[in-house]
Each structure stands twice: as C-alpha cells, then as structure tokens.
C-alpha cells in the first residue's frame, strides 16, 4: 500500500484560494500526486500444476470467492506442450464470481497426459483491497469400483530454480518443470556418478566443485511448456538440474502407487533459486 501525500502549493502574490472557487476547472495543468501515481489494480496469479487425463482420469480446478465483493478472474488451462485447452461448458477463460460463489471447471482434454496445468489470474481493482479468491485443483480417477482423488496445491514460479541431490537404486522420483512465461526457457539435466571437478584461476583460487556428467539432457522449453526428467537413469548416483527462465515451477513427483498413472508432489524436496 502506498502512503497518500497531500500537497498544497501557494504562489507568491497569488489570489487567495477561496477567491476563485472554480480555478481547478480552468484547464491549467495539475501536478500529479502520489495518489494519482499509485497503481489502481493488480493481478494475483496462482498455478495449479500436473493435472492428468486418460481413459480413467479427469482433472478440474475449483475457485471460491471468499470476499464481500464481486471478483473477476481468468482460468487459463494449458496442455503439457503449452497450447491452451478449453474448459468444459465454457466458451472462454473469463470468470466472474459473486460474494461467496464457487465455481468448478473441468479441463476439456482429448489426449492422455500427466502434464496439464492451469493459471488463475485474480484481478484486484484497488491497492486498498486484498486477494479473496481461493484456488485448488485435482485429478479424479476411477480404479475398479473406487474413486481416487489426487489434490494439487498451488505452486509459485521462481527465476532460474535448480535442484541437486543424491540418487539411490530404485528411486522413482521425476523432476518436473513448467515454463509459465511467454518466453522460451532452458533446462539442463546432468546424470553423474558423484565425480566432481574444479577449475581454479587467479580470480577464484578455490573454484566451486562441479559434477562430471555421464549423461546430459539439454532442451529449450517453449512458452507455457512442461518437461519431466526421471532422477535415475543408467545407474547414476547424483542428479543435477538447472534452468534459465523468468517464471519456472519446479517440483519432484512420485507415483501414487495406484493402478492409474497419476503422480503426487513430494513436498519434502527443497529447490534452490536465484537471489534477486
């Protein structure tokens, strides 16, 4: 919130303010104040990642207006490759919710995927107001006679996030990324056996240790695209993943252990990110 500053300028020898009650309407240019420069609206973004679809599963996102005013928002669904996908029963992405109103929107997907995702943009019309839209999402799967639900929490993009960790035999983790920006992003995965090297020089006599990669995967990820990398490949004992992009979601996924192909997020994994 910006402080509001009231300023009164008095000209030398000018007429008293009350002698020209309509002076402000004379067409003379008025000075901008801190209040006039303050942003009148802002957008709050929420990312719902890793939504699945197949013959047994469907995914949806839920929103609820917790405030006492009407809320305007966009619910923007993407396929794993980055393309937009429709919401069932809607002709667009715009949503308006009255106070207390809920909405649930099912992704209209036609191809099997575990990498669909949704961006929800809430418009907050004034700097004095706070965000009031509760957002959640998930995937429902029918396995036999049971309905299984995998809930997806909101994820927040970071600039150039990275991950480095040891890998054990049988590790089923999948490191997954979403490029949520309108520009391409670069990702590099390094599979190693724990061998490290450094190249010191005059400026850095104690250079950082860098793993020797036995296998490298480097890709350019298109705008709004996703990628998934298994942490175990060819018996490696260490895995390093680095990214270059303005707004990237990075999460560790693990199979849910059910008969359908759905992953859960491993919330115990911590990622590094670039310090601003």
Number of strands: 16
Across the major sheet, the strand order is: 1-6-3-4
Strand content: over 45%
Structural class determined from secondary elements:
mainly beta
Helix content: under 10%
Globally, the shape reads globular
Please outline the major beta sheet. Answer: 4 strands, antiparallel
What tags apply to this protein structure?
2 domains; disordered N terminus; 276 residues; 46% strand; 1 helix; mainly beta; single chain
Describe what this molecule looks like in 3D.
This protein is mostly beta strands and about 280 residues long. It folds into 2 domains: about 40-150, Hypothetical Protein Tm1070, Chain: A (Sandwich), CATH 2.60.290; about 160-265, Hypothetical Protein Tm1070, Chain: A, CATH 2.60.290. Helices cover about 0% and strands about 45% of the residues. It has one helix at about 35, and strands at about 40-55, 55-65, 70-80, 95, 100-105, 115-125, 135-145, 145-150, 160-165, 175-180, 185-195, 210-220, 225-230, 240-245, 250-255, 265. The strands form 4 sheets. A 4-stranded antiparallel sheet has the order 1-6-3-4, with no helix packed on it. It has a 4-stranded antiparallel sheet with strand order 5-2-7-8, with no helix packed on it. Strand 7 and strand 8 form a beta hairpin. Mean pLDDT is about 85; it is low at about 1-25.
């Amino acid at each position: 919130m910006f402080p509001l500053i009231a300023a009164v300028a008095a000209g030398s020898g000018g007429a008293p303010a009350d002698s020209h009650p309509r002076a402000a309407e004379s067409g003379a240019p008025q000075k901008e104040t801190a209040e006039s420069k303050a942003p009148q609206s802002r957008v709050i973004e929420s990312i719902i990642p890793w939504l699945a679809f197949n013959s047994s599963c469907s995914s949806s996102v839920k929103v609820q207006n917790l405030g006492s005013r009407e809320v305007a928002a966009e619910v923007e669904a993407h396929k794993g490759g980055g393309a937009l996908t429709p919401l069932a029963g809607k002709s667009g992405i715009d949503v308006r919710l009255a106070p207390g109103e809920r909405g649930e929107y099912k992704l209209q997907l036609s191809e099997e995927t575990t990498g669909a995702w949704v961006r929800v943009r809430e418009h907050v019309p004034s700097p004095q107001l706070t965000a009031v839209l509760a957002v959640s999402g998930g995937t429902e799967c029918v396995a036999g006679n049971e309905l299984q639900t995998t809930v997806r929490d909101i994820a927040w993009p970071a600039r150039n996030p990275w991950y480095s960790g040891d890998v054990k035999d049988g590790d089923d983790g999948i490191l997954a990324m979403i490029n949520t920006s309108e520009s391409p992003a670069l990702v590099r995965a390094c599979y190693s056996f724990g061998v490290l090297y450094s190249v010191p020089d005059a400026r850095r006599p104690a250079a950082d240790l860098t793993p020797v990669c036995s296998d490298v995967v480097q890709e350019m990820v298109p705008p709004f695209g996703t990628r998934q990398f298994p942490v175990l490949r060819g018996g490696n004992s260490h895995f390093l993943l680095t990214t270059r992009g303005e707004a990237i979601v990075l999460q560790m996924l693990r199979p849910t252990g059910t008969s359908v192909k759905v992953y859960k997020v491993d919330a115990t994994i911590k990622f590094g990110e670039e310090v601003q």
